[in-house]
Write a structure and sequence with these properties.
Elements (H helix, E strand, L loop, with lengths): L11 H15 L9 H12 L4 H8 L4 H8 L10 H8 L6 H7 L1 H12 L3 H16 L12
Helix pairs in contact: 6-7
């Protein structure tokens, strides 16, 4: 079990007081609840092209409806920050098909580098990409991909 420095059980209240509030104030933001970071994560992910079906799995929801209704609203001006968001999250955060669709220049650059790799290096990279692109669903809900 996780515990705080004083030995008390790790819980939301302790986390908020000792970690979250200090981090938020240190970067000059007004008080925010940790739950708000879920909204930022979904907005950023959808904006850079992560498939809603992957978001369902990443967020632990049963279907895309929750993503659409609760998290799918963009902050104005966010579109202008797409490249910065991808730089922050990293290109590996996207499946190759998502990268190809939403950032074609970055995809071509990445594939050009991949073509220069020896065959022995390409095989594990292909396996990781295949698993990332097609192995996302845990199959928890039948309507994940509707």
């Amino acid at each position: 079990m996780l515990s705080m420095k004083d030995g008390s059980p790790f819980n939301y209240s302790c986390f908020r007081k000792t970690v979250w509030n200090k981090a938020v104030s240190s970067i000059g933001l007004d008080d925010r609840v940790p739950y708000a970071s879920r909204h930022t994560f979904v907005q950023w992910s959808l904006l850079i092209g992560v498939a809603k079906s992957r978001m369902v799995d990443l967020m632990g929801h049963c279907n895309k409806d929750m993503v659409d209704r609760t998290y799918g609203h963009y902050r104005q001006g966010l579109v202008d920050e797409r490249e910065l968001i991808l730089d922050y999250l990293g290109e590996d955060f996207l499946a190759l098909e998502e990268l190809r669709t939403y950032f074609p220049d970055r995809y071509r650059k990445r594939m050009a580098v991949a073509d220069t790799l020896p065959e022995t290096v390409k095989a594990p990279a292909f396996t990781a990409t295949f698993g990332q692109s097609f192995g996302q669903s845990q199959g928890l809900c039948a309507d994940n991909y509707l």
